[in-house]
């Protein structure tokens, strides 16, 4: 405890770090304040029942989790940062698949600025489309009764404009956190939205177990122990790397020697991050759109139930497949082999050039398989938890996208704090070693 207090004092004594923390907290507070402001034209006193139904609804419940409850509350920030995430993912894939965009991205700062500007334009289009769908949803059962009759003629237009402006405002908050705050702004906003639901979920779970009578408290404590164990497993997944030894040939220039050092090439077990789960969830929700036919209703019922056996089986296969696909898109062993050869580096026992690329690719395939299986297991854990009697609100924290994002962002933020401490010759946050976050933080990887 004494070391922990001293570490907090060290953090607060660094002016730059203290300023970043204060700015981040202020911007996050602004975001959370906006999630409680209801859209114009709605009576907030008539939204309670509709909020409960939305929070327990598959796809809409997921959106509500990422938006920190703003979606079910019909807030001005109901769409949150998700349209920007969708646009960023699309642009990231296009820069991989379209050669012209690859050239723009390689232009340096000017190229990145162009990509970012196109992403913002695409965000406006995506937000306007999602806002139109959200207006149709608000005109359905539950929310329609809350619309003030005198405001109905203007409700659709004002809601689309307000939601689009709200998403752009959240995007601006994320960029300000990125520039002047601590951590990746987009990821911080998503993490705060997820964490905002955790206390309420814990209270509901504790109340449900207490209502069962004898043994309820013991079951709750066992659930918490399993929850902590799952978090530890996800930390191992996020930080797990395979180190490939790399030697660099010695070079003598004048009287100075360069190279000759032995280093390691870190290969992440989970190179794809949370993207396979996001892609798989997006595909799995498509059948629910065809529930208007009798056969479609049966399929929608299966794919709308996260605890259904067939849902979990298909979902696991898709996560594993998307893990290999996305890793193949973002990881280029041929380029790594050429870079090593260009810098006079080589892997002991492997010839430079194509053999090195093949060796790196083979290693990546071997470590991607167990990483993909573990990622699929993490994705279906909420379904298992729900089948074992955990409430739907708390079961979503037993794995899946929510917990992966939460753990990854917290590790990234702690890593940045530790970097500031080490630069000022303070001790790190841990005695056993430095914290390792995700090596590359990007908007699309969340």
Write out the CATH superfamily name of the largest domain: SecY subunit domain
**Average pLDDT rating:** 80
Q: Are there runs of 5+ residues with pLDDT below 50, and where? A: 439-445
CATH architecture of the largest domain: Orthogonal Bundle
Strand content: 5-15%
Overall strand count:
5
Taking strands numbered 1, 2, ... along the chain, how are they ordered across the largest sheet?
4-1-5
Outline: globular
Distance between the termini: 32 Å
User: According to CATH, what is the topology of the largest domain?
Assistant: Preprotein translocase SecY subunit
Structural class: mainly alpha
Q: Which bin fits the share of residues in helices?
A: 55-70%
Helices, by number, come to 17
> Which CATH C-level class of the largest domain is it?
Mainly Alpha
From the alpha-carbon coordinates, what is the Rg to the nearest angstrom?
Answer: 24 Å
Reading the helices and strands in chain order gives HHHHHHHHHHEEEEHHHHEHHH
Counted up, domains total 2
The major pleated sheet works out as: 3 strands, antiparallel
């Amino acid at each position: 405890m004494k070391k922990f207090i001293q570490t907090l004092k060290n953090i607060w004594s660094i002016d730059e770090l203290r300023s970043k923390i204060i700015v981040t907290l202020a911007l996050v507070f602004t975001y959370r304040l906006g999630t409680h402001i209801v859209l114009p034209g709605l009576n907030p006193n008539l939204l309670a029942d509709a909020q409960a139904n939305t929070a327990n609804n598959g796809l809409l419940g997921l959106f509500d989790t990422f938006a920190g409850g703003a979606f079910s509350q019909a807030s001005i920030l109901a769409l949150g940062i998700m349209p920007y995430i969708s646009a960023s993912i699309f642009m990231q894939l296009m820069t991989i698949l379209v050669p012209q965009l690859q050239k723009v991205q390689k232009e340096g700062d000017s190229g990145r600025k162009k990509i970012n500007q196109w992403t913002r334009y695409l965000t406006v289009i995506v937000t306007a489309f999602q806002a139109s769908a959200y207006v149709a949803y608000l005109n359905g059962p539950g929310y329609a009764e809350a619309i003030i009759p005198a405001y109905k003629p203007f409700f659709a237009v004002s809601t689309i404009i307000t939601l689009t402006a709200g998403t752009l405002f959240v995007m601006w908050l994320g960029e300000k956190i990125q520039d002047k705050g601590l951590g990746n702004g987009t990821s911080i906003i998503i993490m705060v939205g997820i964490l905002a639901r955790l206390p309420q979920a814990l209270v509901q779970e504790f109340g449900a177990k207490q209502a069962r009578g004898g043994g309820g408290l013991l079951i709750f404590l066992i659930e918490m122990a399993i929850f902590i164990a799952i978090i530890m497993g996800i930390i191992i997944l996020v930080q797990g790397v395979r180190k490939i030894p790399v030697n660099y040939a010695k070079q003598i220039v004048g009287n100075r020697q360069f190279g000759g050092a032995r280093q390691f090439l870190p290969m992440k077990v989970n190179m794809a991050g949370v993207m396979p789960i996001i892609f798989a969830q997006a595909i799995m929700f498509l059948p629910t759109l065809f529930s208007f036919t009798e056969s479609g209703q049966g399929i929608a019922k299966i794919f709308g139930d996260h605890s259904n056996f067939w849902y979990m089986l298909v979902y696991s296969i898709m996560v594993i497949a998307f893990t290999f696909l996305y890793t193949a898109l973002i990881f280029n062993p041929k380029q790594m082999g050429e870079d090593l050869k260009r810098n006079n580096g080589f892997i002991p026992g492997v010839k430079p050039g194509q053999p090195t690329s093949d060796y790196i690719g083979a290693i990546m395939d071997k470590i991607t398989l167990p990483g993909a299986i573990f990622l699929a297991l993490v994705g279906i854990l909420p379904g298992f938890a729900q089948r074992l009697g955990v409430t739907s609100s708390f079961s979503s924290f037993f794995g899946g996208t929510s917990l992966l994002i939460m753990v990854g962002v917290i590790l990234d933020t702690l890593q940045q704090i530790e970097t500031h401490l080490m630069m000022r010759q303070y001790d790190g946050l841990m005695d056993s070693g430095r914290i390792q976050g995700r090596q590359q933080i990007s908007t699309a990887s969340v």
